[in-house]
Amino acid sequence: MISGAHVILYSQDAEADRVFLRDVLGFPGIDAGDGWLIFKLPPAEVAVHPTDGPPQNEFFLMCDDLDAQLGEFRAQGVEITRPVSEQRWGRLTAIRLPSGAELPLYEPLHPVAHGL
After folding, report:
1. 41, 59 contact by CB (below 8 A)
2. Per-residue confidence band for 22, with pLDDT thresholds at 50, 70 and 90
3. Which residues does the UniProt record annotate as the domain VOC (predicted)?
């Protein structure tokens, strides 16, 4: 039986991004050994979208109130890398991780499955 999902973010500065996940996003974690942190994520869901291109995977964080969340991020000095755009499925933006990678964030306008 499937008991969970494991998401991997590849980083050019893993230590700084781990600190960001712990201290800025507030995700609790465990040390899996030798400082290798694994974080508990909020509830999750998975969707399968059709594509004409090569298969790929994406990772987005979801929030209930994008404007409030962005205000919290700005107060912590987090860089918002994309202006909020209105999509048919939600309000989308992204934040900058310390490694320089972007982490997309959105407020869904669609029904969500993570509470089932």
Report:
1. no
2. very high
3. 3-108
CA-CA-CA-CA dihedral for 19, 25, 27, 29, to nearest 10: 0
Domain encompassing residue 52? 14-108
Are the CB atoms for 54 and 64 separated by under 8 Å? no
In a domain, 7, yes or no: no
Residue 39 lies in a domain: yes
pLDDT in tens, 81-90: 999 999 999 9
**How many domains does one find in the chain?**
1
29, 22 Cβ separation under 8 angstroms: yes
3 falls within a domain = no
Q: How do 102-108 and 61-62 pair as beta strands?
A: parallel
Give the full edge-to-edge strand order of the sheet including 90-96.
Answer: 61-62, 102-108, 90-96, 80-86
Q: In 3-state terms, what secondary structure has residue 22?
A: helix
